[in-house]
Amino acid sequence: MEDNINEHPSCFDIAILDGFFILHQMKEIPQTFNGLSKKVLSMITQFKASRVDIIFDQYFTPSIKDCERTRRDESASPVSIGPNQIRPHNFTAQLKNIQFKEALVKFFINHWSTDDMAPLIGNKTIYLSLNEYYCYWVEDNKVIMTKDDLLSCKEHEEADSRIIYHICQISFEADVVIRCSDSDILVILLGNMDHLSASLKLWINMGVGNHQRYVNINDMYNILGSTISKALPGFHTMTGYDYTPAVFRKSKLKPFKLLKESVDYQ
């Protein structure tokens, strides 16, 4: 499989993007939020897919992440963002603040619905997910925005699991690529391959620069088999859990070998 790791279609039907990962990849950040919004939309429409879905984390409380947010001492003050407003100088640092992130995505939601964005959207269909799912397309040089409650996935905070939920709702045969940096998404997807609603050919595009790779998820699933794939989320939770000293920074190879050899563990 290693020899074929970068084999993929020249054009996909659907590209699904981890929203905050895309924001962290941005270079030469525009000074105003108007320019920032246009640059993000320009970045995601460069994907060779007729439909592009960008999925963001959502935030609510109580949450399993409340302790982490308290530790970060994140500001609870609401944030207001306008198109001509100058972005914070420390933009990347601000992306750690929940209030700022939520205000930024809500600004995108409204800004992308304006007709000025029609040339950037072009002939693509754009979906944006926060607490609801918003769909954008162009008709007669005007941007049309609608909401899709089916894809909202309001019970999940993390983009990781929201992406998988969304893939499981695709009801037609398609070539799908997921752009992200987190191996959690790969593991969760392998564990849920039997929940797909249609025959999908899936790739995950991970890494940056010379380390960027396409991984054929269908091939990986076929090699691992259904039973091991379903066991991977639990295995990954235990071996990747970085808050318990007993397993922190321990090798995954020996535990994985034991998992493969034991049907009971699987």
CATH topology of the largest domain, by name, is Rossmann fold
Low-confidence segments, given as residue ranges, are none
Percent range for helical residues? 25-40%
What is the gyration radius calculated from CA atoms? 20 Å
Cα(first) to Cα(last) distance is 23 Å
Please give the CATH architecture of the largest domain: 3-Layer(aba) Sandwich
What's the total helix number? 11
Number of strands: 8
Helix/strand order: EHHEHHHHEEEHEHEEHHH
How is the largest sheet built, in terms of strand order?
5-4-3-2-1-6-7-8
Q: Which class do the helix and strand fractions yield?
A: alpha/beta
- The geometry reads as globular
The biggest sheet amounts to:
8 strands, mixed
Entry summary:
The protein is 36% helix and 18% strand. The chain has 266 residues and is an alpha/beta fold. It has an eight-stranded mixed β-sheet.
